[in-house]
Q: What sequence folds into this?
C-alpha cells in the first residue's frame, strides 16, 4: 500500500511540480499584500474620531453622501464599517470590482480610492490564472483551469505524502521529525523534503481546499452548502471566511507568518523532490550499467 501511494505521489508531482511551485511562491508573496498596502496608504486606511466614544454615521447617511459624490456613474453594492474606531469605512461598487473607496465614517468625507500596486496585481494574476485571466468574472480561461486542476491534484499529493511519511516505529518517528546535517547533502535534502513537508502539510491543505472555491463553481457550491448558504448575507460571510482561511488573516500576524513560511516551503518542496528523483534515477542508472558490465565480463 505504501508503494502505491509513493507512486501516486511521484507520478503526480513530476508533471505538475513546477506549476505547484509557481502557485505556492506567488501565494507567499501575497500573504502580506494588505499589510504592505495599508502601510503605504496609511492616510486612506485610518481616521481620527472627533471625540472619545464618538459613533460613526449610520450606513444610510454614509450611502447618501457617497452616492452624491458618485452621482449616477457608480452603483454602490456594499459599505464596510469597522469596529475599530480609528479605521476608515470602505465602499464597493458594481463597476469597480475589488477597488474600494475610502470614506471617513464620522463625517462622510470621501478620502480617495485605495490604490492597488502593479507588483501585487501581476503576482495575483500569476497565482490565480498563470497570467491568463478569464475575459470576465465567472468565466474560464486556460490558466484558470490549469491552476484549479493543479490545486486539486496538489491535495492528492499532500495526502499521499502524509501517508508515506507515517513512520513504522518510534525510532523512525524521531528521524521523520528532524533534519540531519551530518550525513551528506542527499540525506539533508531528503530529510528536509520529508520533515518540512510534514510540518507544512496542514497549512497547505487549508490553502488548497479553500482556494478551490475560486477555481470551480461546483466545488464552491458544495463547500458553501456544508456551512449553510441560504441567503446573500450568508454567502458573503462564507466568502469572507474562506478568504481568511486561504490567506491566513484569520489569526493576525502569527498565522500570516505561518502561512508565509508554509507557502514558501510549498514552493520549494517540488524542487527538492525533483532533485531527489534525479539523484535516485542517476544512481539506478549507474547500478544497471555496472551490473550490465559485470554480466558481460562473466
A:
Amino acid at each position: 500500500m505504501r508503494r502505491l501511494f509513493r507512486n501516486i505521489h511521484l507520478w503526480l508531482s513530476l508533471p505538475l511540480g513546477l506549476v505547484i511551485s509557481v502557485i505556492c511562491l506567488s501565494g507567499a508573496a501575497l500573504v502580506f499584500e494588505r499589510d504592505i498596502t495599508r502601510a503605504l496608504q496609511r492616510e486612506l486606511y485610518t481616521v481620527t474620531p472627533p471625540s472619545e466614544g464618538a459613533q460613526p454615521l449610520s450606513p444610510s447617511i454614509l450611502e447618501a453622501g457617497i452616492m452624491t459624490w458618485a452621482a449616477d456613474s457608480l452603483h454602490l453594492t456594499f459599505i464596510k464599517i469597522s469596529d475599530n474606531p480609528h479605521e476608515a469605512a470602505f465602499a464597493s461598487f458594481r463597476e469597480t470590482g475589488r477597488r474600494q473607496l475610502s470614506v471617513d465614517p464620522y463625517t462622510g468625507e470621501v478620502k480617495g480610492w485605495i490604490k492597488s500596486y502593479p507588483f501585487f496585481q501581476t503576482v495575483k494574476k500569476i497565482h490565480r490564472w498563470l497570467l491568463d485571466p478569464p475575459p470576465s468574472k465567472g468565466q474560464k480561461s486556460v490558466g484558470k483551469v490549469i491552476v484549479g486542476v493543479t490545486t486539486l491534484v496538489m491535495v492528492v499529493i499532500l495526502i499521499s505524502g502524509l501517508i508515506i511519511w507515517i513512520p513504522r516505529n518510534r525510532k523512525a518517528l524521531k528521524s521523520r521529525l528532524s533534519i540531519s546535517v551530518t550525513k551528506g547533502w542527499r540525506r539533508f535534502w531528503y530529510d528536509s523534503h520529508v520533515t518540512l513537508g510534514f510540518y507544512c502539510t496542514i497549512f497547505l491543505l487549508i490553502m488548497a481546499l479553500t482556494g478551490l472555491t475560486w477555481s470551480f463553481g461546483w466545488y464552491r457550491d458544495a463547500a458553501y452548502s456544508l456551512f449553510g448558504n441560504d441567503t446573500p448575507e450568508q454567502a458573503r460571510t462564507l466568502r469572507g471566511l474562506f478568504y481568511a482561511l486561504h490567506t491566513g488573516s484569520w489569526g493576525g500576524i502569527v498565522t500570516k507568518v505561518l502561512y508565509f513560511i508554509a507557502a514558501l516551503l510549498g514552493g520549494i518542496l517540488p524542487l527538492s523532490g525533483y532533485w531527489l528523483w534525479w539523484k535516485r534515477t542517476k544512481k539506478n542508472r549507474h547500478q544497471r550499467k555496472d551490473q550490465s558490465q559485470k554480466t558481460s565480463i562473466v
About this structure: Residues 88 and 104 are 5 Å apart (CA to CA). The first helix runs from residue 2 to 30. The radius of gyration is 25 Å.
